[in-house]
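Bumping with the actual sequence this time:
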Amino acid sequence: MRKLLFTFMLLLGALAFAQATVSPQGIIVNPKPGDLRVKVWVDKDPGRTGNAVYQIGEKIKISVTVNRAAYVYLFNVNADGTIDLILPNAYDRNNRLSAGEVRTFPPPGARYEYTITGPEGENYVLALASLRPLSMGDVADIRSNRATVRGLGNLSRKLSIVVRPVPNREWASDALRYYVGRRTPPPPTTGTLDVSSNPSGAKVYIDGAYRGRTPLTIGLNPGTHDVELRLPGYQTYRVRVQVRAGQTSRVSPRLVRVVTTGTLSVDSQPSGAEVYVAGAYRGRTPLNISLNEGTYDVELRLPGYQTYRTRVQVRAGQTSRLAPRLQPVVTTGTLEVYSTPSGAEVYVDGAYRGLTPLVLSIDAGSHDVEVRLDGYGVYQTTVNVPAGRSVRVDARLATAKATLDLYVNTNARVFLDGYSLGATKNGRLTVKVDPGDRELVLVAAGYHAYVKTIHLAPGSYSRISVQLSRIR
């Protein structure tokens, strides 16, 4: 196997418009990264220092993992510009990894192995992860396990075309340097600090400066650093950490919750209302409750009165007071019904209530409303009338359809005002059409056409029998 030069380094040339972040461990190009993460390492460098050295003839193993299920593509860029395809390959075409899965190449029991063949120099492994599969047909040949291009610039241009259609937050990359031959890599100048917490999301301060939220991985100069984690509701965590060049130091504390209490004093007018705090029944007014510091949803319930709801802030060592005047329950609302045209009959829950325009006082709740007017279709709706409020119904009545029932002595095609209504079946066709004076045309092979103007009243039923005469 030759040695690698990673995918994101390729993108560095092709995506010159994007701001790239360069680290000693690799080259990552993604102008707007999302929460997808991919990590790659070699067996001599699990800590990802970027300084592993392999001699020609040695075996090498390459590992990769993702934090979300994704399709992963691995390239090995050699010092002479040749590029090997690690994943997918001729023996393993499945390049979809599950969240948290670690896959090593070659895997145990594989029919192949990777042997360092040179040339000597600086090499890279490149990992490209995407939430959707990418078309790599123009980039690499799986059968030969080689990229179809040679040289960093050409690969860069190819990969930029492949990645460009994918939203920035749906792909990520990682790269790792290693050496082949006698070259001694420069000693690392920085170390890595990996900070996590339970619960996560704590603000991280290093030497007094805010650096982000947990989980956080950051490169630091070697030496002693003061680390502080802050999360509302939890005690501040402080520790002094020794960071060494080329190594990873980890901080992963379980934060201790700050438990402080205050008092919530609840009364009402009238008194005797049930008190619910965060959905839990706590007693009747007047009432004093000891609560942990925080924000709470409070409800007061009393038969015949509207439920009172509010949100209160309870502070440690203090008393928060709540004493509302409860409002009597209103059981009726107003229903306003209008129609176009007006003068239509209004039925509420099946009972006649008057002609539009109509304003009714009605029990609060759901009601079925019908608006009827001769020559027009019935307008139906269901309304919910809140207590103490008004609901308006505007019914735009549509002219009622007429029913046309045709009987013909043969199967014929039917046209009304030039538009096809279909054909009779067994000599009959029943349709609903717009009312008015309409031209009826019947056409059948071997028969004279039938043409007649008919009048259809709104909502009417018209039965028409036609005896077509044969053409002689």
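The tokens above came from a reply further down the thread. The two ends are 92 Å apart (CA to CA).
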